[in-house]
Amino acid sequence: MALDLRAAHAQRRTASGKITREIEAWLSREAYASRPRTRIAVVHEAGPLPRTEWVLTVDAIDGVDAYWAGLPTWTVSLGLLHRGEPWSAAVIAPALGDLYVASSGTLRWQGTTVEPTDQPASPFVLGTGLEKRSILRLGRRKEAEAPLSYHVCLVARGAAEGAVLGRINIREAAALHCLLAPVDGELVSLRTGKRLELDSLRAGRASRDPILAAAAGRADALLARLKK
Fold first, then answer.
1. Residue 128 has what pLDDT?
2. Tens digits of per-residue pLDDT, 9-50?
3. 72 in Cβ contact with 96 (< 8 Å)
4. Which residue intervals of the chain bear CATH 3.40.190.80?
């Protein structure tokens, strides 16, 4: 049985890698056709971003575990940076037909503008399947293959109050920042509550602390609840 499970896992990894490469290749061709000088930076690679005017970060299957479990929350996530600064983002959940586009200070969900609001978001915190003690001890780079971008999309549109993301790198943070900024959401350290500074990620390392994506004005209250 153990051998069968390991074999199945290996087959899934191989298949995931093939699908990921196909999506990345297609996106690379499209990006080059649109902006020939755009460089592609895929999320699963390490190191700093390419030093060029335009960089497109690509997460071809954000949420591998969800993909293989047949859950519809996996996404294709894109973040565009201009001279190292987050410029725009697009996230699509193909199984749900959900599309989020953040550009020019506006977030659109299914083509409709998502407006910033002072009303409390839906009181759900995503990504907290771990016991509370372990949430604050997330130390490894990849704790789980959760669909980070879809969780942040739900926070941005008000369907969730926050999402615990674990440690993230600049390739992931670029798109997430773009999704939250138009609705005054934020990425903060789960330990200190300080806003994540993207400059601290530019060398290519993951964030020092696990990160919380919080709806507008909800970070302090969420941190207080999570730390109880």
1. 46
2. 455 555 667 777 888 887 778 777 777 778 888 887 778 888
3. yes
4. 125-226
Per-residue confidence (pLDDT) for residue 228, from 0 to 100: 67
Cβ-proximal residues to 177 (8 Å cutoff; 6+ apart), any chain: 79, 86, 89, 187, 198
Structure tokens at 56: 């497109």
pTM of the model: 0.83
CATH superfamily of 2-114: Fructose-1,6-Bisphosphatase, subunit A, domain 1 (3.30.540.10)
Q: Which two tokens stand for residue 49?
A: 């971003």
The Cα 124–Cα 218 span in angstroms is 12
Q: Give the tokens for residue 10.
A: 């290996």
Is residue 210 predicted with pLDDT exceeding 50?
yes
Report the range of poorest mean pLDDT among 124-133, 161-170, 204-213. Answer: 124-133
CATH match for 125-226 among 3.40.50.2300, 2.130.10.10, 3.40.190.80, 1.10.10.60? 3.40.190.80
Reading the block at residue 195, the tokens are 């806003």
